[in-house]
Structure formats: structure tokens, C-alpha cells
Design goal:
four-stranded antiparallel beta sheet; mainly beta; Jelly Rolls; 106 residues; globular
């Protein structure tokens, strides 16, 4: 498992840093995306940012005209003001944890 380590004084324990400080987490959810599932249809924006953590499967996150693949055990920070949507990119169910993060005042 790439980029996993065993922390000091741990045994039978693997860990991987997914992100560092991201601001205030407002809420979190878990999503189960069926094959070809996701959304919303058409990109959207909003005041909160997201952190998507793929627990199983593979997600495709649309960011404006760009597409980013997020694999199992990876995460992606999404600025809520960037038009975006998230879709299953696997032939099986994809499981994603989503954290909603308050935007920093600029």
C-alpha cells in the first residue's frame, strides 16, 4: 500500500496522511456511488469547500473543464466556488467520505 507507514510504537497498524490543516469542518457524510452514479448532473458551486476521501473504488471529480481521478485511499480538496461534481469511475460501487469545510475569508 503506497505511502502508508507504521507510526512509532504501533504494531499491525498502517496509516497514510490524506490532508493537513483544512479549516473548520462543518459536517461530514458518507456516500455510496453506484456504477455510473454521482452528481449533480451539471456542475454546481456553493460557499463551502469539500474534502473527498475515497474509501473504496475510484471517483472522478469534475472541476470546471478538468477531470481528476481520486483512487482508493486518496483524497481531494475542492474549492466550493469551482464548478464541480463527483462521479463513480469504477465498475463497482465507490464509497466516498465527504467533509464540508468552511471557506476562509479572503
Amino acid at each position: 500500500m503506497q505511502n502508508f507507514i507504521t507510526p512509532p510504537e504501533h504494531s499491525g497498524f498502517l496509516a497514510k496522511t490524506l490532508f493537513n490543516e483544512i479549516g473548520t469542518v462543518k459536517w461530514g457524510a458518507i456516500g455510496y456511488l453506484s456504477k455510473d452514479g454521482g452528481g449533480p448532473a451539471g456542475n454546481h458551486t456553493h460557499s463551502d469547500n469539500h474534502v473527498f476521501i475515497v474509501v473504496d473504488g475510484e471517483a472522478r471529480v469534475i472541476l470546471g473543464e478538468e477531470s481528476v481521478t481520486v483512487k482508493k485511499n486518496e483524497s481531494l480538496f475542492v474549492d466550493g466556488m469551482t464548478p464541480h461534481s463527483i462521479w463513480n469511475n469504477a465498475d463497482t460501487k465507490t464509497v466516498v467520505v465527504k467533509l464540508s469545510v468552511e471557506r476562509e475569508e479572503e
